[in-house]
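Note to self: user wants both folds in one dump. Writing first protein now.
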Amino acid sequence: MSEQISYKQFFKNYLILIGVMLVVFTLLIYLSIVSKKSWNNNLKTAVEVVLDEKQPNTWSVGKNIDINNPFTMSGACYEARNRKNGEVYKVMVIRVVTNYGPMAGVFSIDKENNVDFIGFSNLHGRIEKQVSSMSTSTCKQINYWEKKIPQILNNK
């Protein structure tokens, strides 16, 4: 024998399901908004470490620059002031695929949109020097990003 469920009971169960789903989605959205700030702060710290290793006491990294482009999932852009000449640059950290796997590459962009590769944020010391010397001049990915980054930043 099949039981008949009344419309009242059906809609009550349906509203409970919708309420639970609404709470779960609200929680997910809240967590993603909260984690975005710490994600940006950690990337900013990684950029500062790379800049200080390459040119100590030369750069001060500022606020995050929003990029209205799908590439924001692969990187972030920050203002950086050169303490020696006072010029404001943009510094971008973006995922670069290398022979050793994906690495976070740090690039500087001046006012004329000239892009320079600075280094990898997850490599330090002797290993970083070896990987950078092997890949800086010959790495097609670094050359690709040096040409692509001005297009990304100008696509606002």
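First done. Writing the second protein, which came from a different request thread.
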Amino acid sequence: MNKSFTKILLIILQTAMITSLVLLAVLPFSCRVTTHGIQILGGNYSCPKIMDYYVVDENTLAMQFSQSVTLKDLVLSPFIEGVSDSLEAGTGFDAGTYSGVESYAVGENYTGGENYVGGGGAGLESEDSLFSGYEAFLPPALQSASGLFGKIECSAVYDQADNQNFVYVHFDQNTRVGQKYQLYGIALDKSGNSLSFLLPFMAYNNRLPALLITEIHTNLVTANKSEKEAGIRRLEYVECLALSGGNLAGLALCSGYEGLQNCYELPAVEVSEGEIFLIHPRSKENGCISEEGDDLNLAFSGYCGSYRDLWNTSESKPMGDKNDILVIKNLINGKIVEAVMYSNYSIEKWSDYLKTDFSVEEGFADFYEDASVSSAINSESLTASKVLIRNIESGEWSVGNSSPGSL
């Protein structure tokens, strides 16, 4: 009897120990080191997540997190093509081997001028760098993110009403229109869990011009013999009229056919009121040169002239031949600022044909009260050599011969 009781008691104790070990393994305990030793924490410990972020104005970026956070080690630096996006490992980076880096040497040629602190050039050292003393061992991308090539000081302001889930990052100096930036920082929750982040963004543009799409060439025209020999193609284009002057930075041409992920982000180019320019949403062979400065005679592909030609580097078909929605989007706030839809009425719903149905997005209703296919411009008579043309006075669209650069 005593032996049986002892055996049962041992089994119960062993079961209790095994159960306790299993529960300790799966329960969400965590710990952190304090001045008094190790403190055991309980609960769900996942690091904070960035839910959204957007540019508010020239010196403010808004960030929304999944939980209440505190930000530290904030660094705002210029995004440098070929450096900030480099995949090279940290093996003693020499800035002189990267084209464009020396132009970002602060206090010398970088367009940010005295708004920035830091340094640049070969043999990089800067007391202001986040990783001061270790720069030579960092990959180029991290050197750039650390503010080594220039940075703007910034600070965080928390929205107490939102329990600090919402944070405004203020920059000490205004960002420059057309310049890309990157914000590095660390988000900490109340339990000490952290998220390191690096957010790229385009500077706020408060001088966006009002644009009107005036002509659309939806097809690739078969090249003749001389064009083939010269490697020149007559490609699709969208003609635009600037109703007001401004800078194109932050605007993008998108087509439902290609989808939101394949928009052509327009370069930071100044346009004047009344200027007519062509957007070429794809490039192919020779002469596809973007005219972003004062010289408007650089491009020599098909349909190029003495007007400004802007070329996307993509080679994929950019729009539907006879069914599509074309929009110009403000990438800063996501709003559509110009829209045209055309169809030969061979489809019933946009969503059945297009990768992205822009007709349901913010701002589209400003251009079409009825966004159904039946309200689109009639494109039934479109051919490879014909285009859609807007009458500036009446606003009516028709199919006609190509006449880029003129209204």
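Dump finished. Worth passing along: The two ends are 107 Å apart (CA to CA).
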